[in-house]
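Need a sequence for this fold. Nothing fancy.
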């Protein structure tokens, strides 16, 4: 199963899964996410979440936008990171 969402948030708390070690900035962020879920029977076997980390950092003022060649919070084609979730039995 594949899901595409726009994740909007105010960075007002630490977010170790997306911004490890980055203290809250109070800034608004809007970033597209693609979620790929592998199902096995009635269970989630694996979940992968993809997003453009550079656009998140640009929106928070932590990365110069000129170094993000594609620019814009709606462009996921550059600098994607992934996190994988594998539930235990």
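Here you go.
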């Amino acid at each position: 199963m594949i899901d595409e969402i726009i994740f909007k948030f105010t960075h007002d708390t630490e977010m170790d899964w997306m911004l490890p070690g980055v203290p809250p900035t109070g800034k608004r962020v809007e970033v597209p996410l693609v979620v790929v879920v592998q199902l096995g029977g009635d269970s989630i076997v694996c979940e992968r979440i993809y997003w453009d980390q550079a656009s998140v950092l640009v929106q928070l003022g932590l990365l110069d936008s000129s170094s993000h060649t594609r620019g814009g919070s709606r462009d996921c084609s550059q600098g994607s990171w992934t996190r994988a979730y594998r539930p235990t039995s």
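For context: The chain has one domain: 2-85.
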